[in-house]
Each structure stands twice: as structure tokens, then as C-alpha cells.
Amino acid sequence: xxxxxxxxxxxxxxxxxxxxxxxxxxxxxxxxxxxxxxxxxxxxxxxxxxxxxxxxxxxxxxxxxxxxxxxxxxxxxxxxxxxxxxxxxxxxxxxxxxxxxxxxxxxxxxxxxxxxxxxxxxxxxxxxxxxxxxxxxxxxxxxxxxxxxxxxxxxxxxxxxxxxxxxxxxxxxxxxxxxxxxxxxxxxxxxxxxxxxxxxxxxxxxxxxxxxxxxxxxxxxxxxxxxxxxxxxxxxxxxxxxxxxxxxxxxxxxxxxxxxxxxxxxxxxxxxxxxxxxxxxxxxxxxxxxxxxxxxxxxxxxxxxxxxxxxxxxxxxxxxxxxxxxxxxxxxxxxxxxxxxxxxxxxxxxxxxxxxxxxxxxxxxxxxxxxxxxxxxxxxxxxxxxxx
Length: 388
Ligand SMILES: Cc1cc2nc3c(=O)[nH]c(=O)nc-3n(C[C@H](O)[C@H](O)[C@H](O)COP(=O)(O)OP(=O)(O)OC[C@H]3O[C@@H](n4cnc5c(N)ncnc54)[C@H](O)[C@@H]3O)c2cc1C
Description:
The protein has 13 helices and 21 strands. Helix 1 (15-26) packs parallel to helix 13 (368-384). Strand 20 (350-354) and strand 21 (358-362) form a beta hairpin. It has 388 residues and is an alpha/beta fold. Strands 5, 6, 7, 14, 15, 16, 17, 18 and 19 form a 9-stranded mixed β-sheet that branches. Strands 9-3-2-13-21-20 form a 6-stranded mixed β-sheet, covered by helices on one side. Strands 1-12-11-10 form a 4-stranded mixed β-sheet, with no helix packed on it. The chain binds flavin-adenine dinucleotide (FAD). Residues 11-17, 34-37, 40, 42-44, 46-50, 172-173, 201-203, 205, 208-209, 224, 226, 293, 339, 341, 362, 364-370 line the site of flavin-adenine dinucleotide.
């Protein structure tokens, strides 16, 4: 039986595990990142790749801003596909215009740069936006997009080459125990790993290691439907384009004075609310346009019956709504896919410590690509009592 010894082992190579590994490495620890696949295949590579602190509440906006800074800093050293092209929220009616104006004022007070756009400005910056839809916009120039599949793989490569990360793919951790003051991790590859400290960042699969904790938690599994079009060489969509239903959905807008009244007037039976749909656009490096998304929530107590079907009707609905908003050359869909993440009902992140040195960190919900680097920095600083 082979044994490999580290200061810190991180289980799960998604963005949350990778972010924890990154900050431990920056503090000089000997770190292994263990991933059951060759490269991560779950939420961290199936997402939009929008890094949008503007969508967060005030506390999480700080984590998002730190993530933005770190993504840009790393991009200076290696191309992890970061493009600083900003985020725009397009308002389609009076209520949404009211909300973007209120959010602009909040961000102005907080010192986070944003710019209100007239309808003319919106059409000039985003020529595909339909004039009948766009009333006004709110633009955040600091924000970035990444192509998640490339970004996560390249960030792992960067950590291996520049920070001496030991990345251990094709290895599933099946048991974690503490004995004689050390943590022992038993794997399917026959290797036993030992460490002083372990972070379990195994996404919505943490029930494999801690089924009782998983069942007791108030986590929900969230299923999202997404798609992309065929590449469109003559279309150019800069950054993230978020629209009216996003304004009515994202946390940051919940801090606006008019939000509660506007939500109270919504018809909760509307199809898009029943399926958690909002319409977002983002262009990949190859020219394809990513469109999404929907949200279905299943409490973990019912996970055994969580549905894993892709609804063709829901995809058709999202395409029809997207067509009301944006003019594309070619609406032929190249791929559709599902993504899953878990999210706590009562807190922003699921965070439990077992035997003092085993830290389960998951349930970052829809915030992971934006919030993980910043959140992990604070988490590691607190736990390791070091400045990272
Ligand atoms: C469709 C979609 C769109 C999204 N869009 C955005 C967006 O635009 N911006 C944003 O900020 N966030 C977005 N999110 C949210 C974001 O993707 C997630 O919050 C984030 O990826 C969660 O990362 P994670 O590391 O916790 O989980 P995961 O990505 O699920 O990673 C967990 C990893 O652990 C590994 N693993 C599990 N068990 C074991 C084990 N026992 N041994 C070894 N390895 C194991 C798995 O293989 C996996 O790679 C989106 C999510 C989805 C699904």
C-alpha cells in the first residue's frame, strides 16, 4: 500500500477546492488536490463563466471583488481566459429601470464602479439587443468572463507549475479518518494520503463521504439547463449580458428599496418563475453564444428522486425568450447540458468541521465562479491563522 504525505489535502478539484488549494500553496504549505476525474467535470466547468460581484449582496460582493482582483492577477502570468469586458443588466420596463437606478446608487455609495446606460447607449454597446426590449442598462466595467472549461484546467496547471501543487486525478477518496493526530484518506487507487488538515470540497457529491451529515443538512440540489449556439463569427457580445428577469432575481437587487413591492406584484404562477428562468447571454472564445438558464430545487432529503431529465419544452421556452431580446445570426443550438450545484437554505456556504482538522466546504450555490477565490482566502486565513 503506497502512502503519500502532505501538510494539506483538498478533496475535489472544482473551483472551490482549487481556490482553497491556491491559498494554502500561497502560504507555503505542501498541498495535494485530489480529483476523481481527469479534470473536474461538474458545476465548475458547466457554468456560464460570469464573474459578477454586482449580483451579490454587500457581504459577498467583497469576496467577489477579491476574486476579480485575483483572476486578473493570475491572468497577468498565464492565460486563464479572463476577459475584462464588463457586465450589463438590461432593463425592459419601468420597474426594472427603477431597480437598476437604485442599485447604481447603492454601488455608488459603496465605491464600486457602475454606469447607467440610456437605451441608445445599450444599443450602441450591444448592437444585437432589440430596441423593443431594452429600456436602459446598468454596466459594471470591472467585471470579467472566463471560459470555465479552459480556465479551471489552466488554473490547475498554473498551480502545479508555479506553486508546486500535487494534482492527483482519477482518484476518489472513499474514507477520511483521524488517528494518532493525523488525517488518513483512503482512496480507490490504493494510495493512502496523510495530512495535518483536509478540506472536503466535493460539491454536491459530499454525501458519498458523509451521508449522515448530508441528509441532516438543509442543502438543496439545484438543477440548471443551459445551451450554446453554433459559433457566430460576425456576432460580438462583450462580457456578460443579463436581462430583466435577472434584475428581478439576483441578490444585489434585493437590497433595493423598491424590490419587495415589485416582487409582490409578480404572478408566481408565471412559467418562468415556476422554472426559475432568467435569460443570460455570453460569448465563448470560439464565437458560440451561451444562453440560459433555469433552476429546479430538490431538498437533499428527496435527492433519491431528484430528476435528471432535460426538458425540451423548457429549452424551447428559453430560446423563444432569448429571441425576443437579442438578434443573432444563427439560432442553431450546438449543445444543451445540465449542471448541478448544492445550496444551503439557511447560510451562504455549507461549512462543517469534523475532528478539528477536517473541514467540509460546499454548497456555495450559484456563486462559485465569482465568490470562491475571495471566500477561500478569508476561510484559509481564519483557519490557518496566517496572512495569505
Ligand atoms: C449551469 C451553471 C451555471 C453557473 N453559472 C455561474 C456563473 O456564471 N458564475 C458563478 O459565479 N457561478 C456560476 N455557477 C455556480 C458555480 O459553477 C458553482 O458554485 C461552483 O462550480 C461550485 O464549485 P465546487 O468546487 O463547490 O463544486 P464542483 O464543481 O461540483 O466540484 C466538486 C469536485 O469534487 C470532485 N469530487 C467529488 N467527490 C470526490 C471524492 N470523493 N474524491 C475526489 N474527488 C471528488 C468532483 O469530481 C468535482 O470535480 C453556475 C453553476 C451551474 C451549474
